[in-house]
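User: I'll paste a sequence; please echo it back and then give the predicted structure.

Assistant: Echoing your sequence first, then the prediction.
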Amino acid sequence: MDKRNKQTIRAEILERRLALTPAAVAAASAEIVRQLAQLPPLEEATVVGIYAPILQEVDPTALRDVLLLRGVQVLYPRVAPVDGFPRLEYAQVHCSEDLRPGYRGIPEPQGPEVAADTLDVLLAPGIAFDSSGSRLGYGGGSYDEWIQRMRSDAIIIGLAHPFQVLADLPCDEHDRPVHAVATPSGIHRCSPA
């Protein structure tokens, strides 16, 4: 077990990610999108959740365009305050123009909320992942809460640069795992501990 705490891991990985050049992010993103476009769960999906990248995250935008051409309903997240706490919800997007700066300047969809249980596949960002599917996010718990509301048969795939995949991560009871992690070297299925 990694003896570092979540905050230390977040700081170290985020520092490495922010040091990536735009060309490195674009190359990694292109390879990950190429692999995901051929992945059976994404070829069969009718509703897919993706995200607008921030802070040198893997960029799934090109995959959105592939999915839209296939007739897939593509959803993006937005933050909606509920009782003073940020709560993640998703809405449909048809193109980049459907996104507007929202919570912390992150591009968000403007349409009506779509229920969590409609998603077939969720592509999730994160700070770090491990082989058992643990996902370390930014610390707000928004994705964990959203994943809790999804169908049990929905597939969750983390997108990561290679250094974001660690041997193991500290995790709490409320943390929700991913089923696979996509990196430029391949899509790695997770084996729950």
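The mean pLDDT is 89. The radius of gyration is 16 Å.
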